[in-house]
Here is the input.
Amino acid sequence: MLRPEENERITRIGPGTPAGELFRRYWQPAGLSAELPEPDCPPIRVRLLGEDLVAFRATDGSVGLVDAFCPHRRAPLFFGRNEECGLRCVYHGWKFDTSGNCVDMPSEPPDSLFKTKVKVTAYPTFEAGDLIWAYMGPAELMPPRPDFEWMRAPRTHRILSKTFEDANYLQGLEGGLDTSHSSFAHNERLGDRNWIRNRDGAPRLDVERTDYGYSYVSTRDVGEDGLYVRVYHYAMPAQQMRGSVTSLMGGRSEVPKLDGHIWVPIDDEQTYVYNWACSYSSNDPISPEYAEDWESQNGRGVNDLVPGTLKLKKTRANDYLIDRERQKTKTFTGIVGINTQDFALQEGMGRIADRSLEHLGTSDKAIIATRQLLLEAVDAVAKGEKPRGIDPATYRTIRPYDDYVPKDGNWREQFADELVAKW
Amino acid sequence: MLRPEENERITRIGPGTPAGELFRRYWQPAGLSAELPEPDCPPIRVRLLGEDLVAFRATDGSVGLVDAFCPHRRAPLFFGRNEECGLRCVYHGWKFDTSGNCVDMPSEPPDSLFKTKVKVTAYPTFEAGDLIWAYMGPAELMPPRPDFEWMRAPRTHRILSKTFEDANYLQGLEGGLDTSHSSFAHNERLGDRNWIRNRDGAPRLDVERTDYGYSYVSTRDVGEDGLYVRVYHYAMPAQQMRGSVTSLMGGRSEVPKLDGHIWVPIDDEQTYVYNWACSYSSNDPISPEYAEDWESQNGRGVNDLVPGTLKLKKTRANDYLIDRERQKTKTFTGIVGINTQDFALQEGMGRIADRSLEHLGTSDKAIIATRQLLLEAVDAVAKGEKPRGIDPATYRTIRPYDDYVPKDGNWREQFADELVAKW
Amino acid sequence: MLRPEENERITRIGPGTPAGELFRRYWQPAGLSAELPEPDCPPIRVRLLGEDLVAFRATDGSVGLVDAFCPHRRAPLFFGRNEECGLRCVYHGWKFDTSGNCVDMPSEPPDSLFKTKVKVTAYPTFEAGDLIWAYMGPAELMPPRPDFEWMRAPRTHRILSKTFEDANYLQGLEGGLDTSHSSFAHNERLGDRNWIRNRDGAPRLDVERTDYGYSYVSTRDVGEDGLYVRVYHYAMPAQQMRGSVTSLMGGRSEVPKLDGHIWVPIDDEQTYVYNWACSYSSNDPISPEYAEDWESQNGRGVNDLVPGTLKLKKTRANDYLIDRERQKTKTFTGIVGINTQDFALQEGMGRIADRSLEHLGTSDKAIIATRQLLLEAVDAVAKGEKPRGIDPATYRTIRPYDDYVPKDGNWREQFADELVAKW
Here is the structure.
């Protein structure tokens, strides 16, 4: 549990809040590159860390990310004209480049110098891994660009998607860093002893702090198959990585891969989840059919989303279409879609969970470590220090993994080569 | 009128509020027994006195009423599995019995004692009169179970329903204890002198305090038919009972009965109304056809409700489908449905009426008495005293009644036998 | 820009606020006369300056404007019966005349004097120019009735409509007093040099304070056609008038006219816009076809409104159906409907624009003058002084105008006769 003030401290991310300052020290995903498909295409609304912004792809292909409101009279720039290297407000024609400079001000006399004095707030961006990344912190503290292994995998070996979650980011992040629940919430095979998560719902957790956050290992005693050991990484402030190389029915996965999520706060009560996966090696390309199937299994396939949005059709308002008969006989939750199950639980806690009422057990070691790291990082930033995981050197070569290990085996030795990035 | 602080004092019923404490000294209806139709059926959400709860019927038929959130990590128990005498959270499999004990904790090591230290908030329940009753107050002050006459009538002689009202409970209760408005709001026979309420819209009220609240009598001068006298009871904190034995067109009703409502706060701004009726005697069974017709007349028949809910189709948002032509020519309000007329007026006051702006007349004597009793009871509870009506002995034998009385008659003598419970 | 407290001071118009007091010194449009089409027709809800009211047309044709809640027990008077010169509450039959007197109280004994002691709040009204006007200020300060020229034009020469706007009134008013944006936001002819607004987007503004507010003149250098000079009036607190006599393609308009808007606060965050136009002279009647075409061009024709409401189908929620292809190739905004373009920009600023973040230029002279006048008037009222424009004598004979003027011409001389009311 957290004290109420601690809970506030790490869940509120608006401008000027402690965690808001922390999140503003990292590059954050502001959207999929595909959301701005070509130069001079329509701008999009971006709400990020509680700030209303507009993103546009300029004529040269670069992405501008500016205040949603024109600095002149606060007209909405979303309706702006994306013209010749700049976004032009349709109220009085003021035009801004991707750096926020006012490059034309046709409502003022031609000889006016006023335009040299006006800027619109603009945040630096770059693109990598099919994402638009933005930095919203102090210019002098801008860190190097993120460089996670999955960003380097070729598109033929990668899956990337984005989903809306109607809750604070921390509920998502904690779910992602909680291995134990997968034996319950994600149990699609009630009573099937072949599914190894059915054999041990109380995995042993070992958490090890690192320069980027922590690495943690869950160990399940799966009887005649020995131990099932899964290595996760928590890259601060809000990314999870896990191995999905091994099949939970025994042997290797059809497409061995690494996967994870980044939870990006829209504001205190809403989140975008970026879902990534990349194959284990160049021998395992990811076909579009497999990718769509994977997204569907997770409950975010094309038929799972409200058309034209990133929102699930299954929501709090329709009880995620829980099927009580299915719950009695086939799956633990009766809810279809792996991440839909997560959303039902995470969104069901309320928009910001009241952690002061919790009772944490040994299965919550990773959760506890996450909170400690966040609280420490918030304090560090407040003191002018550098938080963990800002420097890509700390995580560039890491990789998660999972496999079976003999009961008397040593996973560290067995996994040693596997835990190093191959892309 | 009430001073604003008095109004707050008796309308706010959340945990820790003065009226919240008062309401928590009584058993409260938490739902219809029929909402949990069989052992191990799906749980239901219950919001009661501002608290979010989940009710489930266990394998042995008993009803559990527990906190809506798992004490582990606050996952929503509504999605829980209702299994072998307990509700199991689908996040990590923790299972709770109807008393709130944690009876299984599969995410922790088998030898862990942690489960003996964890409880979920659980309120005592029992069933009677086709209702689930719950007690949400201090264990040491738990009163005997309610025992109203209508609860004892056989199902063949009883009607029971539940309706959602989008306003504070007190607006409903005050409407129920206000006889005068029935000459106006419920006038379905504009100008028809045969309808005796048309003959006297200013009934004389006599209120008499009792150990359970009060009894009050309204007397209408109905000309050649003498006096029409109706006896009501107010059973604290929020039940009304009235006689409906006599036809308002003269003679006895087709099905002579007693009826009433209990208003149960969902929270400060929403209410469930439990509508009950029981026949006057065993000679007058209530057929299903009559019951459905009665519900329809009151505006809560099957066709009046949004399917799958307890909410009226007619709402504030659609002006209760008021028909202005009907209002001009046939009925006083132009709104169809007796209790729909009440809802239009009560919900139309705003979610919590501002009683500081009222102007009360002699027709409001019962309203004034209700408020005084509530204010006194709130004070009594605050002082550790026992409020009225907690002990069923105070109301077990009461019964309301109504009939014509000669102008020189004495209703007390005439009604003496009728005012005693027969069931 | 305004300091945040100044912004609050002139945007908040509820009872007791500084600008609320200012607005309450003027007669305000409370609705279209057509909304109450005949004596004893159904009452309508009116929310005006943050107060919930009900308007009804009595048997004698006069209009009552009373508190939305009955003074007895706060039942909603909207459901009231509009009877024989009074509105009767359907809860207990209390009846009020248009002056707010209780003229019948049938729930009290016939000899009761209580009804002489009860009044419902009632605001004086009168009708002129097809509008219902209401005065909500102190009785002793009630000013003479408004008398704008357009109100005197015959119905055959006039257009009047009413539209809902989902933003604070000041965003609308400032848009109406901003000539520069019409070269951009309302540019329906991208790149067409014949359209004279394309020739000069930076008009020179001259603002002249008057007893009713100000008159302002915008001058555009339109090359070979000389100067295009347009005279506007700002009549306090929230009316704009402008000349539309001259065609923007050269020559006279098809139907030369004067037009304008009055912005009437529903509350702090919502506004009714009254749109009026009257022809320049009796030689130019306005046909119903022209009127409907005009309304359509402005985006408020019959097909533009949600049926049965005064709300546009195009809203913030559907991005005003912006057509990005149209925006690239044909019109500046890609939004269809002149006033829809205004709404997209004004509503898009948020319900109350944050003026502390603005950067105003020389094109904003009129905006700045508006705010100064409002701030001064708010102060004047606070000091017990009379604000500008309360007396119709100050504006009875004014008229706006627009025309081409030679570069060496003098618009004052050229327009002298035109700036005097003809109706």
Summary: The CA atoms of residues 57 and 63 of chain B lie 4 Å apart. The first helix of chain B runs from residue 4 to 11. The longest strand of chain B covers residues 252-267. The radius of gyration of chain B is 23 Å.
